[in-house]
């Protein structure tokens, strides 16, 4: 399947993706074969069902959120380009690249973009702040049934209270980054681990 | 590595442990203790145990080499046995004449007249000396820390070694003997385990496993490289003739020496690095390496030792293969032993509910057993212990009670600290014994250089490889620190002492070199590492407390990464961790954790609770004054404006706003002075801290009852928390009002239907909405039944928490009717010591006219704040799952008292007469007391708790407060009830915070 996948992918396409996402050639071909194997409809795009078919994702509490992150607003198809663009968030931060061209828009795997990606998973209504309800929803997904809603509510309150600096009781992205920068130092770097070794 | 010895001593090792741990030194028999001491050469001077050789010993009958056993086995007449002969005859005679338990009574040759005072030095000499040594070491620690200047510059380990040198010198000068030494047996059996246990158990497992690859690399490859390179290079130096000719050692000897000198020592690393505070990653890598390299060291040491003893010419290829195989056996075997014991331990603690007091013992025993088992099987004991501690922790901590947790923590830390102190001190003392070592400058110098250089080279090479895989590469500063942090310590010393002089000819040289290397690394590197850290600006650990955000995002990131790995079809670290966590959650935790612990187990919740507790503590630290001031200057609450009176009653009412909701009732009942007095009385009764009791009436060896003081402390915290909540509420609560709207509506609805008396003015602040309706009571009672059915089971929890649960329970029982109907409950309360004032008070027996807040404040058990928090949380908790009840039902409930009471009584299988609301309690107290959710608790505990809980239980709803409970049970599914219960039990004190935000 791998060979077929790479033949289907045109070289110029690979080049473009490379430029956009920073993935290496081998990573791209490898991910393309993964893409096609996920693509049960064989129409060059993935729909939600394709993702949901991944067994591990079904048990992942944030699975749906992550799947949603792959789909641009209002669409339910994602092509390989989009697929790669989302995955590019998970490349390790490349400090050298960032230093090279400060004028160009930040690469997808910059720290900010990584955090923004995480932030968007919380921020359902896309108003660029996390409300208590949004936080509660995520909490509910992650902590399972043993904790009551009220306990969750107090956790959510507390979380917001902790992060909220301007007192509007929402977590804005800047506030989110701040918690990430102060307390999530090791974690802010982490969303890169995953695809680090993907060139296998 | 010391299996032969270990095998023989196994039996009394356990007994020793038991004796030491359970009885302390005091009660344990002298022989066992002298057993421990003997290796150090402390107790050899005389042998008191003979007289009292315990049956235990006789049975085991092992170990002819030890002093106690011969005495037990040999006829007592033969007491001048060679082993014992070191004993001074005088001492023996004295012994015989003075103390003579059953065993050698017939020996009493000189039946002297009764002595008033006897000098029994030999009798307790062994333990006495041990205690003195520990005392000296501990005092030294205190002394060092008297001057903060010294300890900031010089690590404690250095000071201890110096002290040891000094003491050793004194002893040498005074007695011309070098009795007290670091004995390998002693070291490996008693001194090392506490340290390894402590470090394994408290190792941050997440960090450890995140870096496991790196750690393993350094531990295995690094140690192999170090020892072989050192050994070979020394051999090369020897060949080159740069060493004294008298150093009689071949290649194998040098390799053997290399193997023991090259291992980074956990004790030394811990001692130095703990004071330096480098960043966690660096620390865990160096420290993890020092722990895990034990397997490599053990194998190399054993292999080369065998080769040396066989003679290097007889070593065949197959032996090398065996050596390699033994590495896997030793390391994996050790790990497996550790895991097995971790499993057993976790499983054991699952069932210790009824024997809380020995919970900590299990932790120590089983982890120690894992160590000893590994030693017996000559596997890597350090690995076994590390993994045992590392893996059991999660489950054990969830299972054992809070107090046991604290006990375990402090005992471990204390023992580890003492062991470390003694190790370093005796290391110093041992170095004084010049008879053991022979100096060769060439060997010493080259060893020092090689040890340092090869460590650095090894680190750099390995890091270069590792950085290709690591996400966060280790920069050169880290590498310098890692090279420099490769401290050698007591393990190397103990191993070199264990060498057989007849086989390893150059042992004395090796001993001298080892001592020098150990001293150099611990003293010189230990001293200079701090400045180096500063100079290089090594990333320090930022000791931030965990925040909820952090925990939450960490969780989220984990899930995200795992999901992305799945999508990308890459089975990486996160994928496997996710799988593991899934497996753990689904099977392992369920198997190893108590059901209750498992249900409430959630890291985010844990962090939340911890944060709350911390806040509470800091709040209390800030001074309890906040309490009083906050109480009087109440936060601005909308409700206040509607009341113009400034009477005490009013003030009160508002203070206890969570509890006292029947504002109108207060105002409608008889007013006047009586009223105020009443209120005042109850305010005082409820709000004044109870005087501390001077003594504890009940004493039990098997259970620790929550004592008064603890209660008081708790009370203080809870009160203050409440104040804080109030103020928090006033500032923040407007925000959440909107958010919780739907919920409010729901509960509001219910309330409206519930409260015929119409106690809820519409203008009331929203937060008050969460107060009680009838549901909670019924719910709770149901769950009691449920619990009874399941009984046995998992109702546990700490005593402390138990109290809380009961309290809530009782608050519910009592609070509900009062809140709704404004019935005075106080007559029903029989406080443990009813004040005479109470008896005289005018409202006594008159139930209609006391406001609810008053009644709940009279409860002696639950601090009012706690009650409030409870009530609020409970009510709103239940308001969620509980179905909407029709108006009719509610009415009915309110008006049909007996039905409900019966309902309640029935499950407890305690037939109760339909209540005359008032003074029926005493009999019932016993009955209802049992029917609480704690029913399944054992009797003993019950008895202990009874005095405290019974008064609360006695409280019963006023006649009018009763409801048609029959309807309710059906309406809640078990899950809801159970979760409610869990919440009650576990989350109680802080529940209120969540609620009030609504």
Quick synopsis:
Chain A is mainly alpha-helical and 200 residues long. Chain A has 13 helices and four strands.
Describe what you observe in this structure.
The complex is a heterodimer of chains A (200) and B (998). Chain A has 200 residues and is mostly helical. Chain A is 60% helix and 4% strand. Chain A contains 13 helices and 4 strands. Chain A has a two-stranded antiparallel ribbon. In chain A, helix 1 packs across helix 3 and helix 10 crosses helix 11 (149-163). Chain A is globular, with a radius of gyration of 19 Å. The two termini of chain A are 15 Å apart. Chain B is an all-alpha fold and 998 residues long. The model of chain B is unreliable at 1-106, 625-671, 691-696, 732-863 and 876-998 (pLDDT under 50). Chain B has 45 helices and no strands.
From the structure above, extract its key features:
heterodimer; A: 200 residues; mainly alpha; two-stranded antiparallel ribbon; two-stranded antiparallel sheet; 13 helices; 4 strands; globular; disordered N terminus; disordered C terminus; B: mainly alpha; 0% strand
